[in-house]
Amino acid sequence: MELDLDSDTAVGEFDASPMALDFRQTGPTVPRMVLGNRLRALREAQGITGADAGRRIRGSHSKISRLEMGRTGFKARDVLDLLTYYGVADEAERLTLLSLARQSNTHGWWQFYHDIVPSWLNVYLGLEQTATVIRGYELQFVPGLLQTEEYARAVMSLVPDDEERLERRVQLRMARQQVLRRAQPPFLWVIIDETALRRSMGGRGLMRRQLAYLLEVSRLPHVTVQVVPFTAGAHSAIAGPVTVLRPPGGELPDVVYLEQLTGGAYPDKPSEVEQYRHVMNRLSVEALPPAATTDFLFEALREL
Fold it and tell me: Which residues is 224 bridged to in the sheet?
């Protein structure tokens, strides 16, 4: 299945309202982003600076920035003070936003793995578990949501760790994949560089099973897989992996995630987000179409 990711029509069939989500499953990321986005709109409508808003809640401009970007939880007292400062008197809206404030302090199911989940990854996991569309490009590895357990273990083993932590990291990756098996899963559209499929990650048998699984999962109606062959030459995303996630509800912009060796980056300027959307669109044209990708994967499997 191919999607037009420059419009919202691809996700229109879902009831993706943030208020309708079960945040016990999805965690605090989306309610934080929705509430922060709404508070920023209210502040700007009143012509109030971030510094003035920060002082109103006994904080700073940087605190307001973190709240409005959805990077931290909210205190009910702060939300009430800001709503009053911004002139919001409607009781229904105040109660709705207070509900989001409470949800912004919940924990996702991955809290069970708190010992192996760094703080910067929490944001990504929350987005991954709530996104209506996930687009990704991978240069070195099969995308995490499409890895077999033994392939994931081989990848995880590249980073030195004790055996117990390694197994917990593998368990977390496998648990994340359940998002594709939900009644209303996200549309997953991944583009994989041929390099990732030619690099052995634990032997011939392991790679055969991984390619076979990739063929299997690519048949799901909500999953599209494309391969960028060597013959495509250099391209704009060759520097590293890129993921673009679309939050639910239609109120929030797409979120770009750049995986790095010791962390993750979330470029959030509108011009940056648009640039990465453009990169993904270009890659989808340069890559083999889904049908040709299936043929490619069959041939790669035959050659192993």
Answer: 189
Of these ranges, 24-33, 237-246, 294-303, the one predicted with the greatest mean pLDDT is 294-303
Q: Do domains 28-103 and 109-303 have the same CATH topology?
A: no
Range picked from 12-21, 38-47, 154-163 for highest mean pLDDT: 38-47
Structure tokens at 290: 């889904």
Map out the domains of the chain as residue ranges. Answer: 28-103, 109-303
Cα–Cα dist 119/267, whole Å? 17
Tell me which residue has tokens 């699984």: 213
Distance between CA 134 and CA 118 in Å, rounded? Answer: 21
What are the C-alpha distances in Å from 98 to residues 83, 189, 274?
Answer: 10, 35, 32
Cα within 13 Å of Cα(29), Cβ side:
26
Amino acid at 206: L
Task: Let me know: does 156 contact 211? Beta carbons within 8 Å.
Answer: no
Name which CATH class applies to 28-103. mainly alpha
Q: What are the pLDDT digits (tens) for 253-274?
A: 899 999 876 778 898 889 999 9
Q: Which CATH class is domain 109-303?
A: alpha beta
Single-letter code of the amino acid located at 6? D
- Rg of the chain over all Cα atoms, to the nearest angstrom: 21
User: For residue 268, what are the contacts with CB-CB under 8 A and spacing of at least 6?
Assistant: 69, 255, 256
Cβ proximity of 50 and 43 under 8 Å: yes
- State the pTM of this model: 0.83
